[in-house]
Predict the structure.
Amino acid sequence: MHLLALAASVLGIEVDELLEHIKRNAIAWSAMAFFALIGIAFLLVALHAWFALLWGPIIAPLAIAAGAIVIAIVIWAAIAIADGIARRRATERRNAAEKTALVTTAALTALPLLLRSDLMRKIGIPVGGALAAAYLLAKPTGQRSDEADAE
């Protein structure tokens, strides 16, 4: 830890000030959360009293409990949907990376066999070079692509 503090001071970061700032903010955030919980508790008590006047002492807590359960189910469904989307995107990225690795491996494996072929040496390499040159010559320069983006 001492070495990290020394390295941080070399970079101009004062570790003591940073830790003090974090502690100060942690106390403020915890106090805010505590008073927010007190406010929510009193809102629920007031809601219970109002519902008890409207519907009676048995239905009021049941209505509040049902509302809380519905909110919990909605939050759970939102989290499940977000996790499913993230999992699907991760699977798609992994599959794309595996496909790229497979194609690269196949190309690197086949390349020595193709280069040994007389047909490839006499026709394939010159044609490939000509296609690469044509692609590079047909590629727009930096200024022309900037002008096209502006339009």
